Amino acid sequence: MPTVPLSKILAPAFEQRYGVPAVNVFNALSMAAVLDAAEEVRSPVIVQTSVKTVRQVGSPVIMAMWRALTRDITVPVALHLDHCPDRALITECLEAGWNSVLFDAHHLTVEENQRQTVEVVAEARRHGADVEGEIEAITGVEDGHGSDEPGERQSLEIQVRYLEATGVDVFAPALGNAHGMYKQAPTLDFDRVSALVERHPVPIALHGGSGLSDAQFHEMIARGTAKVNISTALKLAFMGSGLAHLKECETTGKWEPVLLFAAQESAMRDLVTGLAHTFGSAGRA
After folding, report:
1. What CATH class does 6-279 carry?
2. Measured between alpha carbons, how far is 117 from 103 in angstroms, rounded to an integer?
3. CB distance 190 to 212 below 8 Å
4. Is 274 marked as binding a ligand?
5. Which of 17, 22, 33, 63 could connect to 46 by a Cys-Cys bridge, CB 3.0–4.6 Å?
6. Is 230 annotated for ligand binding?
7. Which residues does the record give as Zn(2+) 1 binding sites (predicted)?
8. Residue 116 near residue 105 (C-beta atoms within 8 A)
9. What long-range pairs does 237-240 form, CB within 8 A, spacing at least 24?
10. Domain ranges of the chain
């Protein structure tokens, strides 16, 4: 199955109330692990790249990796540009073949954010791509973007007006969630999801999923959160498994990079298969 639009992945998830893992990758090994996990448990998956990763690796290299790794894929997959305030980079990625982008303009006034998002949606449509919108800051710094200070929340009326005007395919409100690992259990605003979905049925994106409890995931998904972002947890699986393997190498005196990569790939794959079962997306492809 070729890469499909993000909206086609999220529409059944939103209707049937399951969540789709949206996982930030950073190299070919992590991309392969996420895709292999999706195949293993027959789950749709959204592969995400941060602005930092695109700039470090380069859009041509990422797209070459993506096309090679998805050539024989049999589950629905989408390639998404996460949290991007740079209109030029959005254009670059859309032209290269990304089929979904998050235009992150929460730093602008709502009016200017809305005006530019309308333009981004029109640009994305010309490429057959979808758009995630955001008008509130998600607390926490991720890959150089964001702030540890909570941002201003907008009223339901302002959010609905933005959704109606822009026609974004998925919406990322502030819900008490945060990027990175939580220092203490967050208090999530489940009712905010329900209110938005009731007024304007659109799939909701939950950012800052790393470290939430299964019960919190289940409640968010039941209320209309169809896209669940995971970034930090994959990095921890990659780094933690690598560190453990290197300590073992130090003890045995045997150093083989291929075995290191295998340990890291296995840890990341196990994480994503577990998430698919937790979110209810396993077996949906």
Report:
1. alpha beta
2. 7
3. no
4. no
5. 22
6. yes
7. 83, 179, 207
8. yes
9. 237/264, 237/267, 237/268, 237/270, 237/271, 238/26, 238/29, 238/30, 238/264, 238/267, 238/268, 240/267
10. 6-279
Q: Measure the CA–CA gap between 250 and 256, rounded to whole angstroms.
A: 11
The pairing of beta strand 20-24 with beta strand 225-230: parallel
N residues, the chain: 285
Q: How far apart (Å, rounded) are the C-alpha atoms in residues 9 and 80?
A: 12
Residue located via tokens 């758009």: 131
146 among the known binding-site residues? no
CA distance 109 to 127: 27
209 is annotated as contributing to ligand binding: yes
Query: Is 97 annotated among the ligand-binding residues?
Result: no
| Lookup: tokens for 30 | 């992590």
Give the span between the Cα atoms of 151 and 26, in whole angstroms.
27
Cβ contact 78:100 at 8 Å: yes
End-to-end Cα spacing for the chain: 10
Kindly report, residue by residue over 106-150, the tens digit of the pLDDT.
Answer: 889 999 999 999 999 999 999 999 999 999 877 545 555 554 455
Check: CB of residue 193 under 8 Å from CB of residue 171: no
Arithmetic mean of pLDDT, 51-75:
97
Q: Which two tokens stand for residue 214?
A: 């299964």
- Residue 253 marked in a binding site: no
95: tokens are: 């032209």
258: pLDDT confidence band, cut at 50, 70 and 90? very high
